[in-house]
Description:
The complex is a heterodimer of chains A (305) and B (290).
Chain A: H1 2-16, H2 18-44, H3 61-68, H4 71-104, H5 108-136, H6 144-151, H7 168-178, H8 183-193, H9 197-205, H10 211-222, H11 224-240, H12 244-249, H13 262-272, H14 276-301
Chain B: H1 19-43, H2 47-51, H3 65-73, H4 81-112, H5 118-127, H6 137-146, H7 164-175, H8 179-187, H9 192-203, H10 205-220, H11 224-228, H12 238-246, H13 251-284
Amino acid sequence: MRLRTQAKRIGDIFDARSHWVMLIAYLLLFFAFILLPIILAVGLSFTNFNSVSIDSFEGLQNYIRAFTQDTVFMQKILPNTILYALIVGPGGYLLSFVVAWMLSQLTKTARTILAVVLYIPSLIAGVTISTIWVAVFNGDRTGYLNDLLLQMGLINEPVSWLQSSDYLMPIMIFVALWSSMGIGFLSMLSGILNVDREQYEAGLIDGISNRVQEVIYITIPNTKSQMLFGAVMAVVNTFNTTGLGVALSGSNPTPQYAGSLIVNHIDDIGFIRYEMGYAAALSVLLLIIVWLFNKLAYKLFGSSE
Amino acid sequence: MAKYKGITVNPAKFHRSQIKFYIILLPMIVLALLPLIYIISTAFKPIEELFIYPPAFFVKNPTMANFRKLFGAAENTAFPMSLYLFNSIIVTVAVVFLGCLISLMAAYALSKRKFKGRKTIFKANQLALMFVGSMLGIPRYLVINALGLTDTFWVNVIPLLIMPTGVFLIKQFIDDVPDSLIEAARIDGAGEFRILTRVVFPVIKPAMATVAILFFQSAWNSVEASNMYINTEGYKTFAYYMNVLSSAGNGVAGRGMAAAASLIVVVPNIVLFVIMQSRVMDTMARSGIK
């Protein structure tokens, strides 16, 4: 009997602290694969680490180098990244919202089928880029786009789309937008469908007279939290697809750096040239860019606390 | 703009006014489906059809030759394709099971337990939603090296087990489980783990299904570990093998095999999502960030 009460007491103590037991694996993984890499990146960015040893402390030299000496970074990589992020981020986001809203105006069966179909690209994007899009944009006559344009008489010679510094970036943006309707899109669709119908009725009484007003005054304010989740996911998608240029053109750096973004530049410098200290500084700059985008999303859709 | 007639969201019946949405969505639907149709069509093309000019989009005489080649070709080499497939299955099962378990426990603690540091952890998790692994490739590489995971089988699994989005989605769902339900179980003498498995888990199954799909995708489609951390051919995964097949060097003849391999990678993704889609939508209703 005493043994049982004792066992129970140990059990109670265990239960009272069990939240740490439940969290331990998550916290360890979070530390190892998210927090520690960030700390390491910041720390290494002040050194000249070359993957074997640290010879000197560089202070802010690596950051200064990015903006003053690395002409490729300033002339190609940074403008490419900003252009890509500004179009794919907000563009993909807007597309997701508009499509989600249009789907919400359809009957249930049709909506469900179309939502699944439109979600498929984001499901299969990572796997299929090299199989599908390379075949479509292939540079010789066997490429589907070349074949189509040749038959229509719009071009006389096949265009080598993926090796061209003019076309690579637009193609990357197209493919990224194609795959942009992911879980943020599903979240917003679900949010729109769950707006209380009374809200719409109240709006009708308040004098809302068309669908644009309905979206602005009722749908958006009532789906703000899903729109914020969608915006964060749009940021993630934007920076998750930054390998596209390399995957499509088959080389890093991409032809004349036309499709190279910060992530590719970091890989080039870190894993190919082993200048890890400098690569770490560029990683930190990238983190700051992503964080700013995130901040903007919270500013636009976050609830005021 | 048509005359506004009040509520049009989630209509019960088809109406003429909906036609314009179908028309606008049509090109996007075609674009979404084309690549899938292309893979299916190419995977079943016989070799002659892969070479014909002008290139045909649809298959005329479907054959299983590409699949036979895919399964047969590698049999003579040291590492048969079935090994990659087997690796992928083990990796995926491990990631889905362990990932869901870890996320569920963390989400429950963050949602229903009151303790110091809870808010901080949740804030950190929310900030980490924006985290993309590829952003920090180099320091992650160093961490994985320091942990001694390089060139082991488990490097396929362990880095994928942390998914802030998963913890977030489950936590939002558990927030809606009434506290009274949990209190009642506590009064009945149930321990915390019992409450988690017997009371909470049964009501949050949609969220678990959603997160399971997300873990499935991250593991089944993953090429990162095989590309960056593994040298031993016998530890690499099927998605990696597919990527090698479809890389430029293989030319037109390899396209059929690459498409067949892509199909094997892609189909489970789609089938799972179609089966689970109503649960996913149920989870997404609670996905808002407040």
